[in-house]
Amino acid sequence: MAEPTAGALVLHGFTSTVESMRPVADAVADAGYDLELPLLPGHGTQWQDLASTPAHAILEAVSAAYDRLAARCDVVVPVGLSMGGALALWVGAEREAAGVVVINPGLRLTPGTGLLARAIWRFKPTITAIAGDIAKPDTVEEAYPVTPLRAVGELDRLFAKARSALPRLAERGTPVLLLRSPIDNIVGSGSATLLKRRVPQTHEVILRRSRHVAPLDHDADLIGRRTVQLIAAAVSEEMRAR
């Protein structure tokens, strides 16, 4: 019996680009697995494009990328950083993925932030950039220089979608690997706590040398190894199920 084919859907974070996840994608490819590394709508151009991108456009792009990969692979594992982690959890539940890897995932904003952003973005289009939380010296994240407030309101909707998907992951027993930096100046510990509470089978690995953009930080190799290990375990589980 032939070994199942496998791949990873690799998802970047809010205001960032695929380059923030390139080391993870390279680790997946070097291990012989397929992958999709989509640039999400509204990203990689100018912040005004993100400001005009609705949440559903990002969700649709993630679903389409997952389906492209699933057409080529028997086993698919979504892998995401920050907002990409929320999207990985959502699509993993929607498509019944073999496993999910999340790196410093966001699942909720500070209460009231989304509502406030939707109320004032016309008067205050942007706030300070959120990119570049990296401990490794001389490492720069490719991302927008400001954060569009209108997009923050849409991010709040994306997080709500991800939170609503967590019970399905728990019910199916989907393996979830949480790679978390204890010092994270972008996403607080509340999102990880929520994930572990609602999806009890979540396995947590602490990234002690890295901050929020951990795939570009000191623990990049560890992230790649643990991601590849989860994919390999999902392939073995698929073999046993056949």
From TrEMBL:
Transmembrane segments: none annotated. The active site is at 82 (nucleophile), 184 (charge relay system), 212 (charge relay system). Keywords: Hydrolase. It holds the Pfam family Abhydrolase_6. It comes from Nesterenkonia salmonea. Residues 9-221 form the AB hydrolase-1 domain. One of its GO terms (molecular function) is carboxylic ester hydrolase activity. The record marks 130 as: Important for substrate specificity. It comes from the Bacteria. Substrate binds at residues 14, 83. SUPFAM superfamilies: alpha/beta-Hydrolases (SSF53474). InterPro entries: AB_hydrolase_1, AB_hydrolase_fold, Esterase_lipase. This is Alpha/beta fold hydrolase. The keyword Lyase does not apply.
